[in-house]
């Protein structure tokens, strides 16, 4: 049986495009693989603490000499790394906040990026693990748009997850999600609706295909 690690990071519990699209992916995954396991971590509802000095220095301190705070910080990081390594596939909801990812998702990344374990080693433990990122955004930052060079979600996650952890990264990008809420964007509603419909379709197709691939 395959395990899907599902991370949501939108601050909005309702009306979140990234949450709705990750839900479509997960629904298709579960329908294709009802005996599989889904581990859901809501980084907004249950945020991780930011990486602090104790958690950082613990990795460079002999275990016998660590303080209580260092032991706790190290234990949290390695538990999260264990959870990531047990996953056969990963699903991440990553809405764009101020041109980049939510700080809750950045905190998770800071914990699981452990030099000498998950990165910076010859045999990366997460190498080849497929990760699907739902990178929603209120506007459009696609190539050729005026704000193309303000896009620091897919560009960042491609490097961190792909180059850093060696994972197989795939993106679903629902854009223009604010078109119905911002009067100045009213002329973009049709494009927004088309982008969302495509994202939902892609999520369902990718969730089904990935579950089938991993259980073949």
Automatic annotation (TrEMBL):
Domain Flavodoxin-like fold: 3-163
Protein encoded by which gene: azoR
Residues given in the record as FMN binding sites: 10, 16-18, 96-99, 136-139
Similarity comment: Belongs to the azoreductase type 1 family.
Cofactor, how bound (note): Binds 1 FMN per subunit.
Highest taxon, organism lineage: Bacteria
Protein EC: 1.6.5.-, 1.7.1.17
SUPFAM superfamilies: Flavoproteins
Cofactor: FMN
Chemical reaction(s) catalysed: 2 a quinone + NADH + H(+) = 2 a 1,4-benzosemiquinone + NAD(+); N,N-dimethyl-1,4-phenylenediamine + anthranilate + 2 NAD(+) = 2-(4-dimethylaminophenyl)diazenylbenzoate + 2 NADH + 2 H(+)
Family annotation (Pfam families): Flavodoxin_2
Keywords assigned: Flavoprotein, FMN, NAD, Oxidoreductase
Designated name of the protein: FMN dependent NADH:quinone oxidoreductase
Keyword Cell membrane attributed: no
Quaternary structure (record): Homodimer.
Function: Quinone reductase that provides resistance to thiol-specific stress caused by electrophilic quinones. Also exhibits azoreductase activity. Catalyzes the reductive cleavage of the azo bond in aromatic azo compounds to the corresponding amines.
Listed GO MF terms: electron transfer activity; FMN binding; oxidoreductase activity, acting on NAD(P)H as acceptor; oxidoreductase activity, acting on NAD(P)H, quinone or similar compound as acceptor
Keyword Flavoprotein annotated: yes
Origin species: Streptomyces albireticuli
InterPro entries linked: Flavodoxin_fold, Flavoprotein-like_sf, FMN-dep_NADH:Q_OxRdtase_AzoR1, NADH:quinone_OxRdtase_FMN_depd
């Amino acid at each position: 049986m395959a395990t899907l690690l599902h991370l949501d990071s939108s601050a909005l519990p309702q009306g979140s495009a990234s949450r709705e699209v990750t839900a479509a992916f997960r629904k298709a995954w579960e329908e294709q693989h009802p005996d599989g396991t889904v581990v859901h971590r809501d980084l907004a509802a249950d945020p991780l603490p930011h990486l602090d000095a104790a958690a950082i220095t613990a990795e460079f301190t002999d275990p016998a000499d660590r303080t209580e705070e260092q032991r706790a910080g190290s234990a949290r990081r390695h538990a999260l790394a264990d959870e990531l390594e047990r996953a056969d596939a990963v699903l991440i909801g990553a809405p764009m906040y101020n041109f980049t990812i939510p700080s809750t998702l950045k905190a998770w990344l800071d914990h699981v990026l452990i030099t000498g374990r998950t990165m910076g080693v010859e045999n990366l433990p997460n190498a080849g693990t497929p990760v699907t990122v739902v990178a929603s955004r209120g506007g459009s930052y696609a190539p050729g748009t005026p704000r193309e060079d303000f896009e620091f979600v897919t560009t960042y996650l491609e490097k961190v997850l792909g180059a850093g952890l060696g994972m197989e990264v795939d993106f679903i990008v629902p854009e223009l999600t604010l078109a119905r809420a911002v009067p100045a964007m009213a002329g973009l509603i049709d494009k927004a609706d088309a982008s969302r419909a495509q994202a939902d379709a892609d999520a369902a197709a990718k969730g089904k295909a990935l579950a089938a691939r991993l259980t073949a």
